[in-house]
Amino acid sequence: MTYEELDTLTKSQLNVLKEIIAVSEAAEVDFWLRGGWAIDFLLGKITRPHDDIDVVTWIQNREQLENKLIKIGYERTFVKEEFRDRQSDFCKGDVEITFSYITLKEDENLILNGLPEWVWRPDSLLHKTFMLNGVSARVLHPTQLLEEKEVYEQIGRVPRQKDANSKKVLQRVIEEGLY
């Protein structure tokens, strides 16, 4: 799919992603994509339209990142009280972005901040960058992405067709070592 063939929202999301990358690089803040965009970056192609952009970074980056995003026109959006320790939601134009925050517990296990019962894989944060439509970004390990889909089902999220499709793609990515 060429850039000219992309729908308006997808183009907007890619432009926002470029801005987030620029802000993060200037602030020396590492981040990783998760969700549908992470899968597309792993594959090096856009597979479907996305509702939003999901980003993961360290909790110690939160305040700096939020301030910089607000300064360049991003708007905070409502986050339920029970999720406020672990995420910030923003929008820019028609693009929604969720920033999730990770931390290390005292035992050195990686967790989503404020959710100590969900221990992430030690290899969750890939160092390699992936290219998509001229944009370079890091993503979560495909096994971590797959485990997240399974955890959501275990805690009662209603299964969605896009999740079933993503699980199949992630299993193939893992089997073929495409990361």
Written account of the structure:
It is a single chain. With 179 residues, the protein is α+β, with helices and mostly antiparallel strands. It is 38% helix and 28% strand. Helix 1 packs across helix 3 (62-71) and helix 4 (142-154) packs antiparallel against helix 5 (161-176). The two termini are 21 Å apart.
Q: What structural class do you assign from the helix and strand content?
A: alpha+beta
Order of helices and strands: HEHEHEEEEEEEHH
Contiguous low-pLDDT stretches (5 residues minimum) are none
Count of beta strands:
9
Q: For this entry, what is the oligomeric state of its chains? A: single chain
The backbone outline, from C-alpha atoms, is: globular
How would you state the average pLDDT, rounded?
93
Give the strand content: 25-35%
What portion of residues is helical? 25-40%
Biggest sheet statistics: 7 strands, mixed
Topology of this structure?
Elements (H helix, E strand, L loop, with lengths): L7 H20 L3 E4 H9 L9 E6 L3 H10 L3 E3 L9 E6 L2 E10 L5 E3 L2 E5 L5 E8 L2 E6 L1 H13 L6 H16 L3
Parallel strand pairs: 2-5
Antiparallel strand pairs: 1-2, 3-4, 4-5, 5-6, 6-7, 8-9
Helix pairs in contact: 1-3, 2-5, 4-5
